[in-house]
Queue: 2 jobs
Job 1
Amino acid sequence: MSDTVTSRISGFHKLPLQERLKELARMFHFTPAELVQLQGSDGLEPALANQMIENAIGTFSLPLGVGLNLQVNDRDYIVPMVVEEPSVVAAVSVASKIVREAGGFTAEADESMMIGQIQVTRYGDPTEASQKILDAREDILALANSFHPQMVRRGGGAKDLEVRVLPPPEGPRGEPLLIVHLIIDTQEAMGANMVNTAAEGVAPLIEQLTGGKVYLRILSNLADRRLARAMCRIPLALLEDFGMPGEVIAEGIAQASRFAQADPYRAATHNKGVMNGIDSVAIATGQDWRAIEAGAHAFACRDGQYRPLSSWFLEEGHLVGRIELPLALGTVGGPIKIHAGVQMALRLLRTQSARELAMVFAAVGLAQNFAALRALGSVGIQKGHMAMHARSVAVTAGARGIWVEKVANLLVLAGHVKVEKAREILASLPAEEAAAATGTG
Ligand code: NDP
């Protein structure tokens, strides 16, 4: 199958929705039942939703699209993306097309090492208590692993232990914080439940060793032992666009990167763009996107100032982009194996492991960021954005079917993308056309 799959599907965005599905069905040999699952038309069963969360009353839909043209480490990926914001899917596709011509993204990801934190209090002397814990390292790791025998058989489990003494937040008269970190290889799982079980499981032994009292026992979402990195290197000639030479576009992108590096106000928006891409594929593939968000932003602050997750610079006639961030992802656990839509999204993506998934996520984040900076550093984003925003404005005003596009085009031509203007356009149509345009005919 892998030989028949390409993420470069020319003209895909111009096809009607059903034709797009047919195109994917041809490529992936999907059955009609699988296509229904992909399309989400019979959605998540309410009974299943009721098992997933508390007080369930139903389900809630969002658009699913596919980011195209992505190539990472010489492999093609069709990227399932769930997002309500226009232009996110287009941005990933446009950026990936340019990077593809430059040889694609290269990416790598660390092993699935998660951190479990155990907070020890009333332990007496911090140096002595730390030493007692470190001396019992092997016993603590063995106890942690006793809760996950299967995981150990897979080659994962608790691998290391660290003790951190942190200054008391209330000043020198307070007790320093004594924090034990359990480093656990969670393999194909995001690992929160596994880490929490291990942290809770070893707490009594740590209390016994130190004579102290343990309070919190939980994973850290700052998963900085589980980083993913992606990179691209684009010859300047490939950047020529908007009637501007590649050098000028590249300079705009590099300047945008400098701005974000120096200014947290800009870095926040820069990283929001990165996460537009990452969150969309995270939701489609059943990942805990709050955990990913928490990890990304904490990592962005690691040197004390909030900084961009990606950077861009010019090097020997090329624009070079890099991204690095924690990505605690799973191919098992949470809703992944029980949600049919997630399973179909993972089939489209064709990743074989949590690490490969992390590499694709990192590349998607960098692609999204590239598209945003390319526009921001040159013509601005409103031109492209407004064309797409105009469609939702047309829908809000009541346009339906082919009239959404027609009204959107008229709004852009008028240079006035507002619901009031769209209503005015619809109202100006002859009665019969107006009825067809608003689906009331
Ligand atoms: P689960 O506990 O749902 O599932 C992981 C389990 O899958 C493992 O414990 C393992 O069980 C089994 N498994 C089967 N094959 C493999 C394999 N190849 N590699 C690894 N495990 C395998 O999920 P997680 O522990 O990943 O926890 C994720 C969930 O926790 C998410 O839903 C998240 O929202 C939630 N969560 C997040 C928190 C946070 O981020 N702060 C806090 C609390 C929960 P076995 O070894 O027994 O086979």
Job 2
Amino acid sequence: MKLHVVSHPLVEDALAALRDRRTSSTEFRRLSRRVSLLVAAEATRDLPTVERPVETPLETVPCRVVATRVVAVPVLRAGLGMLDAFLDLVPSAQVGYFGLERNEQTAVARRYYEKVPKDLGDAVVYLLDPMLATGGSAAMAIEGLRGLGAKCVRLLCVVAAPEGVRYLEQHAPDAEVYAAALDRELNPRKFILPGLGDFGDRLFGTE
Ligand code: PRP
Ligand code: URA
């Protein structure tokens, strides 16, 4: 499994504010969008393009446009914080949803919702979930996408833990992961350290 940690000063800057416990939900949403744009830009760098002639007001110029089907699948809830940024970059993407929730005691994910386009074999599928902790949620979502025929799956996240990366290496070796940061470890409650806390709660102002 390939792990890409996006190295960019603007990623560092956004992460510093996302991690800060004093950052409000309003600001957290803006930062989530900003960091997601940077991660998504990196993860779409190699999308195939075809040439298309375009008429400018002055002459015709050969341009290149994206030539593959793209599907974005945010994982509810926290993945919603990455969706607008992704659609800013790839407005033609289809969108599907997985609803996954970790049990607070066991940290084991449970799927409660699924609405994803079918026959994903010809698509580049971007799974959007900002936190890769144990890897259980991502592995469950990737397995679901594989069941719908997906061959090319890329997980975009904000913070990844080494435990989650190792878990995906075993359970989803063909997926690629793009992360803004690779953090140190999980705590006993399976939260990422140093991390940024509960992404969904901070994004939506819940506890
Ligand atoms: C968070 C996060 C991931 C999951 C990661 O979701 O958005 O989906 O935890 O943890 P894992 O790698 O150990 O599976 P959570 O279950 O807190 O749901 P929420 O987004 O609705 O808050
Ligand atoms: N989910 C989160 O939102 N944060 C963590 O640290 C781990 C899982």
